[in-house]
Design brief:
Elements lengths: L8 E5 L3 H13 L3 E5 L2 H11 L3 E5 L7 H9 L9 E5 L4 H10 L3 E4 L4 H14 L6
Parallel strand pairs: 1-2, 1-3, 3-4, 4-5
Length: about 130
């Protein structure tokens, strides 16, 4: 990759610090720039300030849940183009439906599976023609 090529920026929002570290390491090792937030309000602020190329978002967090963050971002013209991957232990059919209605682009189950995460990230960024090399 030459110095003029921008690495895709991924924001990981999760209140589980170990999961953040794991996701960050997986993504960094595969050529992505990674920013993180350990709480929902900070994550929402970072999404608006940094305009990442993709967001990996936990559903079950205190203060604001991931469904609501997704809804807020997808309702704004400036952010609706950013793919959002919901990552959660809530894997029921109703939860998938809520995620889809909130505007999520993908829904991955915890525990984090590195190949699933990377596959989904590459797929969604590929649709936007943004790839890490």
């Amino acid at each position: 990759m030459n110095s003029l090529t921008k690495r895709p920026k991924i924001l990981v929002i999760d209140d589980d610090i170990l999961l953040i570290k794991l996701a960050r390491n997986i993504l960094l090792q595969n050529g992505y720039e990674v920013i993180t937030a350990e709480e929902a309000p900070l994550g929402l602020e970072m999404a608006m300030k940094n305009k990442p190329d993709l967001i990996v978002l936990d559903v079950m967090m205190p203060i604001i849940n991931g469904f609501n963050i997704c809804r807020l971002l997808k309702s704004e013209e400036s952010y609706r183009h950013i793919p959002i991957v919901l990552l959660t232990s809530r894997t029921g059919e109703e939860d998938h439906k809520i995620g889809k209605e909130a505007g999520a682009d993908a829904y991955l189950a915890k525990p984090l599976n590195s190949s699933e995460l990377l596959g989904k990230v590459k797929e969604l960024l590929g649709k936007r023609n943004i790839e890490a090399s």
